Every structure is written in C-alpha cells, then in structure tokens.
Amino acid sequence: MRPYQISVCGDSAINIVVANAISPEASALVRNAAARIQAAGIAGIEDIVPTFCAVMVAYNPEIISYEELVSAVHANLDGLSAQGAAAGKTIVIPVCYGGEYGPDLQHVAEFHDMSSEEVIQRHTEPTYLIAMLGFLPGFAYLSGLDPKLETPRLEVPRVRIEAGAVGIGGAQTGIYPLPSPGGWQIIGRSPLRPYDAERTPAFLYAAGDSIKFEAITADEYQAIEAAITAGTYKYRVKEAN
Questions:
Q1: Taking Cα atoms as reference points, which of 20, 2, 175, 19 lies closest to residue 85?
Q2: Distance CA 60, CA 81 (A)
Q3: pTM over 0.90
C-alpha cells in the first residue's frame, strides 16, 4: 500500500496527501515528495505547492493528462518515507513583546492565568518548524507552540496588522510579513521583514526551515530597524548540522 493518496484538485491539479495530521514527520514527507517530483522534471507540471500534509501539483492538461501525471507521480514516489529530508536553517527573529508592539500580550497572559513574562518565556523557548508558507508572501505556518499558550483568535479581526507583528491564533503562532487584516492575538513585533521584494533573497526562510524567537527591548527594536534601513543589519542564521 502506498504511503500517500492522490485526489483531483480542480481541472488542472492533483493533491498528494501524505499524512492526516500536522507533525515533523508529515513535514518531512511533504518536503521529500515535493523534492522528488521537482527533480523528476516531469513535462507539463506548472507548479508544486507543499502544504501541511500534502503536495499540490498544478499541471497543463494540454501537455500531460491526469492519468499520465498520476502514473509519473507513482513512479517517482516509490518508497517515499520521511527519512533523509534535507534539514533547513534556523532563523533568529528578534521580537519586542508587549506595549505598542504587542497590544494583546496582557490579554493572552490573563486568559491563561499567567504573567506576561511567562508568556514571553514560553513563546521564545521552542524552535518552531516552518511547515508551509501561505496566506501572504512569506507568512510561515509554524508548528511547536506550547499548548499552554493556545489562545482563540479575536472575535473581531483588526483591519490592519503591521508587518513584523507576531501573534497567536488558536494552536499556532506566526509573524506577519506584510501589513494585513488579521484576527490573531498580537503579542509582539519584530523589526525584521520575512518578505521584501527589494531584497535578495526576498524571503528569509522556506518550508523546512525553523524560526527561533528572541525577546528584545524597545531600544533594541529601534536600533535593529535603523540597521535594516541602512543595510548594515546582519541576519542571524544557524545552518543545519
């Protein structure tokens, strides 16, 4: 029995489901499947989109039929496993928590009957795996949030959340790469920009990389922001071993 399932996704895409729950193993399976299909160079494939538990493959039906694509996928995913997935880098994201940068920090603390300091400690402790990118360019869907920080989204979403805002939405945490409406509880903000069309590379990270949040002061925030504007900031990246 194959360790994945293929389903139709519209009239010119298929979905390859490799897991039914978010986990590091699911992420590894997704990355391995996407890498194998990419490396195969199958004519007619137009896009490969890794998600939490599946890989969507868009194709041109004038070049390759559904049946031909499915056959090619089977041939290239034979023996698919989570082993050997390329380890990504870890990007350190400095965050100023609370105050004007994190208007919902106190609410999150009160919701969980803990201090703001404990919220910050619990939020900065894990290394978060980037399972996928979506919603906005560079918006990372992270796994690894401490279950004790799980907090419902806002009942009324904000019209605008600033770029760099770090929030909690249910069982997930993330950083907004661009100004956007949103309903997550905003507990801090980073001066870093995960996505910048004028920067090379435009994205700070990719699926399979990890993020480590680090608490900074308001003064440190301003200093980092100034360094980024001046083009002198050195991004902190821990390469995989």
A1: 19
A2: 28
A3: no
pLDDT of residue 137: 86
40: Cα separation from own chain's centroid: 25
For residue 21 the two structure tokens come to: 């729950």
Higher per-residue pLDDT: 3 or 189: 189
Q: Which helix (H) or strand (E) holds 11?
A: none
Q: Do residues 170 and 132 lie in contact, with contact meaning Cβ atoms separated by under 8 Å? A: no
Tokens encoding 14: 């298929």
- Mean model confidence pLDDT for the chain: 93
In Å, how far are 2, 31, 132, 208 from 37, measured between CA atoms?
A: 16, 10, 17, 16
Q: What are phi and psi of 185, to 5 degrees?
A: -75, 115
- Report whether 7 contacts 17 (CB < 8 A): yes
In degrees rounded to 5, what are phi and psi of residue 169? -135, 100
Top pLDDT among 27 and 118 is at 118
Specify whether the backbone of 144 is left (phi greater than 0), alpha (psi in -120 to 50) or beta.
left
- Which H or E element spans position 230? helix 218-230
Confidence of residue 241 (pLDDT cuts 50, 70, 90): low
Extended strands (E) in the chain? 5-8, 13-17, 45-50, 54-59, 90-97, 128-133, 140-143, 158-161, 165-169, 172-175, 180-182, 185-189, 210-216, 237-238
**At CB < 8 A and 24+ separation, what contacts does 224-229 make?**
224/94, 224/191, 224/192, 225/191, 228/191, 228/192, 228/193
Dist CA 141 CA 27 (whole Å)? 11
Q: Locate 214 and state its tokens.
A: 């680090």
What pLDDT shows up at residue 135?
A: 83
